[in-house]
Amino acid sequence: MTHPPPPRATRREWTGLAVIALPCLLYAMDLTVLNLAIPAITADLKPTAAQMLWIVDIYGFLVAGSLITMGTLGDRIGRRRLLMTGAAAFGAASVLAALSSSAEMLIAARALLGVAGATLAPSTLSLIRNMFHDPHERTVAIGVWIASFSAGGAVGPLLGGAVLAFFTWHAVFLLAVPVMALLLVLAPWLLPEYKDPNPGRLDLASAAVSMGAVLCVIYGMKHVAEQGPSWLGAAALAAGAALGAVFLRRQRRLEAPLVDLALFRRPGFSAALAINVLGFFAMFASFLYIAQYLQLVLGMDPLTAGLWTLPSSMGFIGGSFIVPLVARHLGTLRVMVGGLVLSALGFALLGFVGTSDLALLVLGSVVFSVGLTPVVALTTDLVVSSAPPERAGSASSLSETSSELGGALGIAVLGTIAAAVYRASMVNAIPPGASQAVSDAARGTIGGAMAMADQLQGSAGATLLGAARSAYVQGMQVSTSLSAAIMLGTAALAIVLLRGHAGKP
Fold it and tell me: Do 127 and 191 touch, CB atoms closer than 8 A?
């Protein structure tokens, strides 16, 4: 028995895709646009060191913690309604952030931005699942969706720098307001509404437990990455694991669970999530190393460093558009495995970067970015396509949460390894006579070594600075080489897990 071909998308769906791309671009932009404004915010609001960390981190923490709840909420109340509600809340929170007169007020506004931002990715991705029924068209649409996030991440620092050249730091937060207003005008005309016809009751206890689990895990990983292994980091990870176990047990008993665990039994769903986690594991850590290398090793200012990250962002954006066309002819599995091998080559190139190898750094970053685009685009497509339409929001939120967890895990694990290599390389680099506190700071981070070098006289400071930069590069080389090996292992895993589930369409 032959089935009729799925309906093709019309001009309305493709125009609606452009509307969907707007909040995705802003979501990613808000993760990076703050970076250049930090000095101005520090001078104006005079936050403590702890408050400054929360100003920067609270947005990403609450995005990650709220994704599962928001994805399921979209299935229940409607994906368009959730998107419009989130857009209105995002705009209002942006105005609140711009009006902040204290560090506490800015932290609260950033927290609201995080909760509102968590509505954007799952609602837009689940709308794509329902708007584009043809598999090839849906893959193209998801490529555009991913490219919009990449564009937001690339534009954020540059746009932030341009705004700060003419206005105060408050204006950085107002960039989102006109775009969200445009979305609220266009969405009712161009985006259809979809929701689960039998949604069931939203279990608030599950929502609270899921948020607690994700927040504890993300916080624990971040603490380990920044401070090294500690009781606090271990306690946060243990609490996250315990809450995660409670969450899963509760989902098995509920008639209308927050996450339908049956999704994990669908062919390709769990495999795609696992590959997605491993891809972001390597990618997030490498982006962090590259940004620090440009500023701390090569001595660039933040705006110049941002310009040198554009080639890899352009590679990611371009790859997101090319992948659907290549996958249509070669098949999903071949393209994904080829992308993983190519990303391994890019990470391997970074493993040979020395203390003054800008060209090799840019080349390696472009190669691994292009290589990872099939991983991100095709695993996202597999996750969303594997779920029934009424569960698209829940599946989308799981895809986004796996990305957040994979990235945080990569920064924690690979960052800890790189830090250990740095400390081992700096054991004999501290000049005699330095205090214990200063010596510990210089051995701990390259930033601490740079601060110590500024205090030393003559050639001693230059010698210490050279040793610190060399030690940092050694840590980066070890970490990126491990990323190359992980990508090769992931390619083998993809062959085993996806054979028969992601063949030639």
Answer: yes
* Residues contacting 226, CB < 8 A, separation 6+: none
Q: Which residues contact 21 (CB under 8 A, 6 or more apart)?
A: 144, 145, 147, 148
Contact yes or no for 207/231 (Cβ under 8 A): no
Show the domain range for 222: 203-257
Asked if residue 135 lies in contact with residue 385, where contact means CB atoms within 8 angstroms, the answer is yes
Per-residue pLDDT, 436: 67
* C-alpha–C-alpha distance, residues 137 and 13, integer Å: 11
| CA neighbor of 447 nearest in space, from 464, 433, 428, 432 | 464
pLDDT of residue 35: 66
Number of domains in the chain: 3
Q: Are 396 and 71 in contact (CB under 8 A)?
A: yes
Rounded to whole angstroms, how far apart are CA atoms 146 and 152? 10
Asked if 365 contacts 348 with a C-beta cutoff of 8 angstroms, the reply is: no
Backbone angles phi, psi at 55, to 5 degrees: -60, -40
DSSP type of residue 59: H
Residue 262 CA, distance from chain mean position: 26
Residue 198: inside a domain, yes or no? Answer: no
User: Residue 501's pLDDT is what?
Assistant: 57
- Give the helix ranges, DSSP H, for 228-268: 231-253
d(C-alpha 492, C-alpha 78), whole Å: 39
Give residue 434's pLDDT: 61
Decide if 380 contacts 125 (C-beta within 8 A): yes
Give the ranges where 78-118 is alpha helix by DSSP (H): 79-98, 103-117
Whether 183 maps to a domain, the answer reads yes
Q: What is the pLDDT of residue 504?
A: 40
Contact of 28 with 156, CB cutoff 8 Å: yes
pLDDT along the chain (505 residues), means of 10: 69 89 81 72 82 80 84 85 92 93 92 90 86 86 86 76 81 87 89 78 84 86 74 89 91 80 78 89 85 84 80 86 84 90 96 92 94 87 78 79 81 83 80 65 73 70 81 92 95 85 46
Helices (H), 351-458: 358-386, 392-425, 436-444, 446-455
**Residues 237 and 278 occupy one common structural domain:** no
For residues 22 and 175, give the distance between their C-alpha atoms in angstroms, rounded to a whole number. Answer: 12
440 and 406 within one domain: yes
| Predicted local distance difference test score (pLDDT) of residue 457 | 65
- Asked whether 176 and 91 are in contact (CB, 8 A), the reply is yes
**What pLDDT sits at residue 318?**
87
Sign for the pseudo-dihedral over CA of 367, 370, 374, 379: positive
Spatial separation of the C-alpha atoms in residues 409 and 401, rounded to whole Å: 12
